[in-house]
Amino acid sequence: MARFQQTACGMGDGEMGLFRHLGQSRREARERPIPQRYQGLYRAPIDRDAVALWGFLQSQIGIGSSARGYARLLRHALPDVRCHAMALPGRDGVCFSADAPEQRAGRNIVVLNPPELLNGNLFFPSDLMRGTHVIGYWAWELPDMPAAWCPAFDLVDEVWTCSEFAARAFRRATRKNVRILPHVVEDWEHLPRSEARARLGLGTGDDFIFLSVFDFASTLKRKNPLGVIAAFRAAFGDGPEGPLLVMKYHSGEQFAQDEAMVRAAAASCPRIRLLTGVLSQGEMRTLFDAANCFVSLHRSEGFGLNIAEAMIAGVPVICTGYSGNMDFTRPDNSLLVDWTPVALRSGEYFGWQGQTWAEPSIAYASAAMHHVINHPEDTQDLALHARADMKRMFNPEAISARMMDLLRESEPQPLQDQGRWSWLHDRFRAQGGDASAPGHPTGRLDHLAGP
């Protein structure tokens, strides 16, 4: 069980992240032979009508959670679908039934980002899937796709992704089809707030709780928990009385320097509590049920699943008005924080060169926190709109129907081996605009933000 820690008074997912986790260099990773577990595929014929999904189905990581969600939808809609779990040493352990890879399906949905797809057949046996239709499900969090990812287009026939923001980045780099399949945002049986707090050791009192959730592996700069802390302290000071801020995170042991920065910032206020470690899905849902308001001052998101989950829980949301979450956060269902575009610097995120992302306004976020507390009726109206939008847009039935439409539009065909010159040509040929414009995305809090 994860643990709460009261702070004392007083003051990235990059391309190489998974390779480092496996203790491999990039070259070693790409020169690995096809694993023994895939050897039976050499002799298997291609079943043109079959559909298979490949993913980290038994791994406790975000892309594994996405794969499990889509696998459940496929199994409900297509009883004969095959779901293959790719191994991720050190991160496996989730109980999820998977099928042995004993046949080659005509269409393969591979929930795997380009760095791992380019990993020399270690996860997905690309060399054995030539002659099938391969759909890569990719995620990305910046306006442009990294050039180092472009050779992965040679291993897929089309790309699916979670948001218009991410799709725009991929479309700039290829002429292949790039289609949007959002995440499923499942509802659950919600607990009374007092009961949820008691289960998590937060007491059963009437304290107002702001909640923020992040993973250090997704990088400190992108998730920006320090911005949340700064906005909270600017709004309510560092005294012993006032609302609480609960910061839930994991992977701190792998990013000790970043965690030390968060702990130092949180230690300045006795009303900031740190919740560390990995929570189960049920515990995460209980955490959302315990909160009064969810805050994400991200600099960029591919989708923003935690934001969406807070919204379906009926929790008011304050978030940066930029990137993937703009597919579903609007002025009538959330408080969107102003931002200005800033250039990324070396080391802040993989593929940073020439890219920009959002710098959310701390003053605006602080004003939004005050607004949530001081205008409960308006805030409740936002939360009701948000919950209704999530249930309508991202319920399993809607996403399943979307997936079936995309599968019907795809056609099993030989994998096109276009080569490096083709993707280079595509990259320089493709053009597109930015994700969204800076400024005042909400129109709701201009009178509160101050000069």
Q: Profile the largest sheet.
A: 7 strands, mixed
Question: What percent of the residues sit in helical stretches (DSSP H or I)?
Answer: 25-40%
**How many β-strands, per DSSP?**
15
Based on secondary structure, the structural category is alpha/beta
First-residue to last-residue Cα separation: 44 Å
Question: What portion of the residues fall into strands of 2 or more residues?
Answer: 15-25%
Tally of alpha and pi helices: 16
Give a brief rundown of this model.
This protein is of the alpha/beta class and 451 residues long. It contains 16 helices and 15 strands.
Explain what you see.
The chain has helices spanning 17-21, 26-30, 62-77, 114-117, 164-171, 193-200, 220-223, 225-236, 256-266, 281-290, 305-312, 362-374, 376-393, 396-409, 420-429, 446-449; strands spanning 3-6, 46-55, 82-85, 104-111, 133-137, 158-161, 178-180, 209-215, 244-250, 272-276, 293-296, 317-320, 335-337, 339-343, 356-360. The protein is α/β, with parallel strands linked by helices. The strands form 3 sheets. Strands 1-10-9-8-11-12-13 form a 7-stranded mixed beta sheet, sandwiched between helices. The protein has a 6-stranded parallel beta sheet with strand order 3-2-4-5-6-7, with helices on both faces. A two-stranded antiparallel ribbon has the order 14-15. The two termini are 44 Å apart.
